[in-house]
User: Which sequence fits this backbone?
């Protein structure tokens, strides 16, 4: 099974409007049967509201960037911030955020070591593969917009590393070497490989087949995917579903049960329904529902959209809801949360090829 290749195209404003109208014309009823704000708003108002929200968040993120081009000493939020700008259609070398993107790109490239790992020196002792997957994804998406030879060389090294350190079962773990595996790390490497393949960096078919087999081995009979084997935690279920979808296995028999389980979960601010790692969960859950389309997408996205819009701070940032991840995950800043919330809302915009159907 080969990854499906897509070509990044510049979308004009009228095309984006058409996509928003199509995707957002899905009303949702509250449990009491009353109309929600998603029903009351016109399509044009929704377009304006979401676009304004994303633009406020990008303005906030631009102001948080350090002179060296980083947002944090950890490349996970650095990569997510770059993806947030690209998810709105901003590209290196052009537009109001051209310097933000160029400086961010250069910082991540400077952190790559001889083995291909994107890890700032002061984080070298920690398990780097969360950072690696997101940094490789950001560099792959950027390479589709920016044919920089330095970017290509770094991306090829990163892809070679992912191929080399894939476990015998087909997954990845915290360290860049063959060992054991878990789904929360594996999904990040899968999305990075999908993006690299889209950018014409070849990925062996064997690597993809092994990754598919590992994700399927985490499927639970009750519907869902587990952390290192059969199970049905919310965050790993979202990760497992989107992994198979992005690898071209939309019709896999394990996905329907996973999507039904996700549909049963509450859309609340905080740890409702036992949903830990809140932004991680929603980052993958909205993608899985978008890839599925139909009733799953119609049920999920209006509720998530309205919740995230209502919780954005006046300065464009988002906070961590109570009962979820703590600031100690990546450091005391809002860049991680704001970037992920922005990417959730940008699912409507379709600028990032890795997330397209």
Assistant:
């Amino acid at each position: 099974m080969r990854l499906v290749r897509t070509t990044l195209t510049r979308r004009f404003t009228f095309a984006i409007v058409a996509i928003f109208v199509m995707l957002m014309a899905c009303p949702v009823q509250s449990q009491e049967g009353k109309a929600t704000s998603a029903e009351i708003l016109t399509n044009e108002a929704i377009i304006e509201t979401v676009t304004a929200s994303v633009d406020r968040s990008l303005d906030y993120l631009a102001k948080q960037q350090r002179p060296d081009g980083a947002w944090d000493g950890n490349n996970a939020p650095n990569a997510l911030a770059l993806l947030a700008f690209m998810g709105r259609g901003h590209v290196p070398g052009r537009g109001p955020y051209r310097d933000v993107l160029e400086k961010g790109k250069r910082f991540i490239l400077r952190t790559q070591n001889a083995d291909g790992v994107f890890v700032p020196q002061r984080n070298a002792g920690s398990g780097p593969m969360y950072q690696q997957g997101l940094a490789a994804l950001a560099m792959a998406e950027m390479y589709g917009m920016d044919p920089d030879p330095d970017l290509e060389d770094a991306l090829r090294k990163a892809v070679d590393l992912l191929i080399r350190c894939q476990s015998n079962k087909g997954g990845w773990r915290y360290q860049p070497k063959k060992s054991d595996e878990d789904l929360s790390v594996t999904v990040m490497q899968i999305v990075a490989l999908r993006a690299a393949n889209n950018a014409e960096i070849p990925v062996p078919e064997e690597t993809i087949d092994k990754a598919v087999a590992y994700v399927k081995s985490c499927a639970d009979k009750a519907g869902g995917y587990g952390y290192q084997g059969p199970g049905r935690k919310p965050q790993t279920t979202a990760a497992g579903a989107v992994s198979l979808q992005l690898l071209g296995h939309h019709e896999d028999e394990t996905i329907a049960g996973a999507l039904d389980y996700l549909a049963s979960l509450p859309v609340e601010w905080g740890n409702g329904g036992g949903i830990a790692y809140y932004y991680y969960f929603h980052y993958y859950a909205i993608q899985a529902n978008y890839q599925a389309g139909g009733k799953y997408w119609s049920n999920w996205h209006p509720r998530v959209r309205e919740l995230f819009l209502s919780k954005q701070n006046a300065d464009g940032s988002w906070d961590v809801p109570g009962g979820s991840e703590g600031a100690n995950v990546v450091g005391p800043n809002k860049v991680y949360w704001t970037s992920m919330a922005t990417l959730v809302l940008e699912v409507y915009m379709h600028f990032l090829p890795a997330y397209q159907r």
In short: Residues 1-41 have pLDDT under 50 and may be disordered. Residues 43-64 form the longest helix (22 residues). The domain at 38-355 is CATH 1.50.10.20 (Glycosyltransferase). The chain has one domain: 38-355.
